[in-house]
Amino acid sequence: MFRYLCRVVGPSEATDLTQEVFLRVARSDVPETTTDGERAWVFRIARNLALNHRRDTGRKPETVALTDASRPAPQETSTAMKQALERLAPLDRDVFLLREVAGLSYEEIAGSCDISHAAVRARLHRARQQLRHELQPQLQNVNPRLVRLYESR
After folding, report:
1. Cα torsion for 24, 91, 125, 148, to the nearest 10°?
2. Mind listing the pLDDT tens digit for each residue in 102-141?
3. Do 5 and 46 touch, CB atoms closer than 8 A?
């Protein structure tokens, strides 16, 4: 949960939102469903809180931190990945993060985002293609064997 929220809102805000998710879960009646359905329900709460947080903080001016020019390559790749994720459509980004960061199944993602299983597959494919295209310059500096492994997914 925390890793998913870190990717969506950043680590500084993820701690508070994670606590808020579990407070809401503790205060609510768990819906009668399967274990996967319960997991999807918790991630739906997290996703809705993250969307509300992004919407609310989008109204405030954001401060920009100065960057150090001597950052090592992994940080540059991390920054490029974060920027590429920001350029994804919001629902595509959520589907991608729920799958790759939170490890949810397609069914759990469909339940969490209130879309069909086929829509999850299509959005995940589109997000991966767009990220691969945008991160191509960074991927050229990575071991080609790792790139082939990722592309085979």
Report:
1. -70
2. 889 999 999 989 999 999 999 999 999 998 888 887 766 6
3. yes
The 3 state secondary structure assigned to 63-97 is: CCCCCCCCCCHHHHHHHHHHHHHHHCCHHHHHHHH
Q: What angle do CA 136, 137, 143 make, to 5 degrees?
A: 80
Q: What pTM does this model have?
A: 0.56
Please state the domain extents for the chain: 2-61+72-151
CA contacts within 13 A on the Cβ side of 147 = 13
Q: Is 39 exposed, middle or buried (0-12, 13-18, 19+ CB in 10 A)?
A: buried
**At 95, which amino acid appears?**
V
**DSSP label at 4?**
H
**What is the chain's mean pLDDT, rounded?**
82
**What would the two tokens of residue 115 be?**
């879309």
CATH code: domain 2-61+72-151 is 1.10.10.10
Find all residues with CB under 8 Å of 80, minimum gap 6, and list them.
Answer: 134, 135, 137, 138
Q: Is 7 exposed, middle or buried (CB count within 10 Å of its CB: 0-12, 13-18, 19+)?
A: buried
